[in-house]
Design a protein that fits this description.
Chain lengths: ~110, ~110
C-alpha cells in the first residue's frame, strides 16, 4: 500500500462547481497534514495546512479524519485559476524530522 | 525579497558528465531538502540536511551527492552513476524551530540528458 494515495483524476469541472479531493495515508503515526498546489511545470506551493478540527480558507475547506486516516479538500465556486494539480502531503516528524511524504496529486481542470 | 532560488532553470548533461544544481535560501531556514519529480509521479526525496555540515540520504540517493558548507546553500551533484537523471529537481527548505512548520520550494531545475 502506498504511503499517501489520492484520487487519480483528472477532474474536469465547469466554473462555479464544487469539487472534492480525497486522500488516504497509511502511517497512523503521521502528525501533520497539508495540501499543496502545483501549477504545470512549476514548484509546489503550500495551499493550506489541515487541522484535526477541520479548517477553512475562503473557498477552500480541509478536513482530517485520523481514525480513518483520511484527508479531504473541498473547493467551492471553482475558478479558472484553480486549475492545477493538488498534492496531499503528510509528515512524521518523530522519525524523519520534517520529511514530507507526497501523494502523486490530482489534476483539476476548470472550464469556462 | 526572501526566498529560495535554484539555478539553472534548465540544465543539459552529456553522458558520463557530473553536473551540479544550485540551491540558495535567505529565509534563515535550518533544514534543506532535494527532491526529484518525474512526469505523473510524486516527489521523491534524494537528500536532506538538518544543519550545516550534516546531511542524510533520502529514498533515492544513489547517483547523487550533496554538501552543506553554509546554512544558505545546499548544492546537489548528479553524478555519472545516475543512469536516468532526466527529471524536475526541486529544492526546499524549512524552519525547524517548530514541528508544525512545513517546507517551501524553490522554482526547480529541469535536467535533460543529451
Amino acid at each position: 500500500r502506498k504511503e499517501v494515495e489520492q484520487d487519480p483524476g483528472p477532474f474536469n469541472v465547469p466554473e462555479g462547481a464544487t469539487v472534492a479531493f480525497n486522500c488516504t495515508y497509511s502511517n497512523s503515526a503521521s502528525q501533520s497534514f497539508f495540501w499543496y498546489r502545483q501549477d504545470c511545470r512549476k514548484e509546489p506551493k503550500l495551499l493550506m495546512s489541515v487541522y484535526s478540527s477541520g479548517n477553512e480558507d475562503g473557498r477552500f475547506t480541509a478536513q482530517l479524519n485520523r481514525a480513518s486516516q483520511y484527508i479531504s479538500l473541498l473547493i467551492r465556486d471553482s475558478k479558472l485559476s484553480d486549475s492545477a494539480t493538488y498534492l496531499c502531503v503528510v509528515t512524521n516528524y518523530g522519525g524523519s524530522q520534517g520529511n514530507l511524504i507526497f501523494g502523486k496529486g490530482t489534476k483539476l481542470s476548470v472550464k469556462p | 525579497d526572501g526566498g529560495i532560488t535554484q539555478s539553472p532553470k534548465y540544465l543539459f548533461r552529456k553522458e558520463g558528465q557530473n553536473v551540479t544544481l544550485s540551491c540558495e535560501q535567505n529565509l534563515n531556514h535550518d533544514a534543506m531538502y532535494w527532491y526529484r519529480q518525474d512526469p505523473g509521479q510524486g516527489l521523491r526525496l534524494i537528500y536532506y540536511s538538518q544543519i550545516v555540515n550534516d546531511f542524510q540520504k533520502g529514498d533515492i540517493a544513489e547517483g547523487y551527492s550533496v554538501s552543506r558548507e553554509k546554512k544558505e546553500s545546499f548544492p546537489l551533484t548528479v553524478t555519472s552513476a545516475q543512469k536516468n537523471p532526466t527529471a524536475f529537481y526541486l529544492c526546499a527548505s524549512r524552519y525547524s524551530g517548530t514541528k508544525k512548520e512545513t517546507q517551501y520550494f524553490g522554482p526547480g531545475t529541469r535536467l535533460l540528458v543529451l
